[in-house]
Here is the input.
Amino acid sequence: MGSPPCATHHRELALGETADLEACSRGITWVRQALTDWGLLGKGQDALLIAAELLSNAAEHAGGIRSLTLSHQDDLLQITVTDPSPDLPQLRAHRPDSIGGHGIFLMDRLAQHWGTRPNGRGKTVWATLALPH
Here is the structure.
């Protein structure tokens, strides 16, 4: 008898407000492993990019990464990153010739939906992706 479906399709990695590149790297490796375990790695390249963006934004602009969560159901994958800052990410006018500042723009283009919700004194930023068949 295997794991219950909710355990099979939901994973959380606690990072304890870590604000460094090692935490981002650890999170990306963890996402890659979860996608591999679920047989989705070939379909989830955009998920790796979005996870990297959410993690680096939390580490760089929001005081650290509290947790990273993946949920998969049918053809949808949701990635969430919780951080200690209440400041919301802003989708600004995209300037293709600028160095940096492309992350939220790319996430907005790649994700089916994205948003934020309060989480204690901080927030959770989430993105939902449709997985190709």
